[in-house]
Amino acid sequence: MIAYESLSDHEAAAAVPLDVEDLVCVSRPYFALEDLRRIAPGRVIATVPIESGSGRQAAVMGVGEVGRHLAILGLCAASTINRRPGRFAYLARGARVEWLAGPTLAPQEGPLIGHAKAAFTTPRKATADARLTDAFSGEIVAHMSVCYDVLPHRLLTRLLDAPPSEDTSTSSEVISFRETAPSARPYSEPIPLERFHLEPATGTVSAELPVTAALCPGHFDGHPVLPVAVAATAMTTLVDQAVAELYPHARWLAGPLTLQADGFARAGETVTFTATPTRAMTYRCVARTKTQTVASVDIQLILVDPVTLDQSAPPVVTSVR
User: What's this model's pTM, rounded to 2 decimal places?
Assistant: First the structure.
């Protein structure tokens, strides 16, 4: 009931529990929001859990997980104003995420609350703005804007049932395709990147991820494709490993992160991730299969000296050039 209790008296009077099971194409455990409520048409609120570690990020939640929860919250908001009946897929095609809170290594002490407001720009396109706030202090810790393609469930099914452009089976000579027992909390597990490589001459880092159904539960059930948010988390994990190699004593915060999603990576395919430093500690990250680009992310890093986080003085943050 934390999300409900955070509302003003006027909002609380209007808020009602929202069940989106028959409206959207994501479900638990990918959908992890609690106490989801509709405040008004196009406006929703929910309690947002912290499910996974933030790695070397000096934040209570990794920016990839922030994107996952707020994108889901945004599509829930859009589902309340979709004039067409039935179940729809809201495919995130572009997004901008920004972490706003200061650096910290301390765990989150209170609940995090998500607010989202959505609008349709055409019958098949929607946008949402969402924010993540600390329930106790009221501080806005992150913000996200996202745009969606909106497809009826039957069209999504037809799209994902279509055969891929070429054989997507993973060759045993390249990397093994392993099915593992499902986890009770699959999205709390680290992204199992393989074959991490750092190119010393350019600073480019790369890794591979075999896509399995175990990476996709609750995301387009019956059609396991890698969620865009998981791909984005994999890219930030790759950057995290680059920071560990290049700046072993540093932590980091995400500056503005922009994402573009272009396609699907199906179970059985292997995604290759690359992260190339460009300017002012900005990385250009790309996720590709053998046949297409799946998604790309541009992320600016702010390096943090962890020693200063234990002192009473304000923490030292630097953008390395």
Answer: 0.89
